[in-house]
Amino acid sequence: METYRWSKGVFSSTFEIFSQKGIAGQIRSRNWSRLTDAVINGKRYLFKTQGFFTVNTLIIDPEKNTLLGKISYNSWRSIASIELKGSTTVLKSESIWRSQWSVWNGNELLMRFKGSATRGTIEVVKSDELLMISSFFAMTYFWKAATIAIVTSLMPIWITILTK
């Protein structure tokens, strides 16, 4: 089993992923865009999120401009289906606070993520760099969606307080 850790500054748009050897990769969201750049062990990927009510993300090899896979989200159940290399794995939240996530291929546990939006760990049972970075991206998508939901639901309260 391999263990990685990640960290991100509070106002940063970049997650850094570390192995025992040093920095292994990063995910950087582009400002005002639905595109995210990712690197894992020197290999680059591009995540292109599309849709509004039915959201999915295309996983692209930017050097060859080829489609590698797709992530489909079920926001109500905090589950993402990740299609790569002809097989589908499932990322699902294991806690109500979305601080623990796991990746499954049927009944086989492949990875486990623990942490918050600023730091955490990744336990990899079965090594697959593309699956790891794709699962990590999907997990951050759910965190961003939850943050947006909280901010927009509190907006009327803030407006009321600030206009008095």
Describe the structure in your own words.
The protein is of the alpha+beta class and 164 residues long. The chain is built from one helix and twelve strands. It has a twelve-stranded antiparallel β-barrel. The mean pLDDT is 89.
What is the CA-CA span between the terminal residues?
56 Å
What portion of the residues fall into strands of 2 or more residues?
over 45%
Note the overall shape.
globular
Order of helices and strands: EEEEEEEEEEEEH
Mean pLDDT: 89
SS-derived structural category: alpha+beta
Discrete helix count: 1
Helix content: 10-25%
Count the strands?
Answer: 12
| Rounded Rg | 16 Å
- pLDDT under 50 segments (min length 5)? none
Characterize the main sheet.
12 strands, antiparallel, barrel
Strand order in the largest sheet: 1-2-3-4-5-6-7-8-9-10-11-12
Helices and strands in order:
Blueprint lengths: L1 E6 L6 E6 L2 E8 L5 E6 L2 E8 L5 E6 L4 E9 L4 E6 L2 E7 L6 E6 L2 E8 L3 E6 L4 H34 L2
Antiparallel strand pairs: 1-2, 1-12, 2-3, 3-4, 4-5, 5-6, 6-7, 7-8, 8-9, 9-10, 10-11, 11-12
Task: Spell out the key features of this protein.
12-stranded antiparallel beta barrel; 1 helix; 50% strand
Give a nutshell description of this structure.
The protein is an alpha+beta fold and 164 residues long. Helices cover 21% and strands 50% of the residues.
